[in-house]
Amino acid sequence: MSDTLRNRCAIVGIGHTRYTRGTSASTLELQLEAATAALADAGLTPADIDAVMPNDMSDRIAEEFILNLGLEDLAFTSTMHTGGASVISAIQSACMAITTDVATCALVVAGRRGYSEQRVSTTSVRIMPVLATVNEFEKPYGNLVAAQWFAQSAQRHMHEFGTTSEHFGHVAVTCREHANLNPNAYMYNRPMTLADHQSSRMITSPFHLLDCSLETDGAAAIVITSAQRATDLPHEPILISGVGEGHGSPPTSITQKRDITFVEGMHFAGRRAFSMAGIGPHEIDCAQLYDGFTWFVLASLEALGFCGRGEAGPFVADGRIKLGGQLPVNTHGGLLSEAHVSGMNHVIEATRQLRRSVEPQRQVADCETALVTNEGDFHEGSVLILRRREP
Question: Burial of 144 by CB count in 10 Å (0-12 exposed, 13-18 middle, 19+ buried)?
């Protein structure tokens, strides 16, 4: 496995808007606000940016950033079409552009009016080429939206391994506990118990309402440059040590997977990222795992080797993913309780943990290495491993 990208690039700037339900700002305005904040954090100006990675899920294009930020000499742009996995895939492409001298400094942005305009729960699914198979063969039978697709995997996981709804609830409750230590989280000051989870209304069995990620407005952005250049900037560089993307088979439907309980794309992505970084799961200090649904956290723990097949339910019930546990997960609250920014807030949280700049009550002690995941479409995956310094 190639280690060409290992520690060659670094995250040097992070920024985000407030996470809300209700905004008069457009998606572009939200993303420009986040981008401006990330540039200020990096101690850079728009003149330093020569690569932009717009996010597929927000339907924005590079030309809008050229016009509105005044980018005068853009050398590289690319939009990844892997749904929720696209943020980390974009980071991988940005690193390839910088490492090969195609560009020097990249802006990666994500987020949208996820509550005020693009609510998944009340609007139709976006038209995407990857949905062609589902639209032709499954939609006529009522298999319409993501909650249904992933519910089938969760049901099968329960059948095969004895996983329970309470196991899902422990993920939701842990994320909420962490969000209540994070003033940026939309669910800050909104405690939740396992009983609350169990009594929340059923969306599609086995998913209750509190198994599903938030619908929020907001945007987030990061700035990436070479590790060498990063040493001259205000913050300690956060090194990109490993990154990988993976696609399960077939990539166009969950119901037709070889094994719907195993997220093959995440497994492949993790294998590449761990190999590139030269470390294993036992060396990760905290993990920010994509949590569109609670079950996906369990599936990711298994796919990445943090526990064995079928063991993730007891793993989370034992408190191992809480702050102070064996592997603190989603220390900002995740998509379930901080905000849904297409997973960019997971990258920002990992960066902050490594900078040691989160609130003291949720700082992971001696945090040196953090792992971030994205999940998109039908069990596609992308994995990022960040380090505070080279070992």
Answer: middle
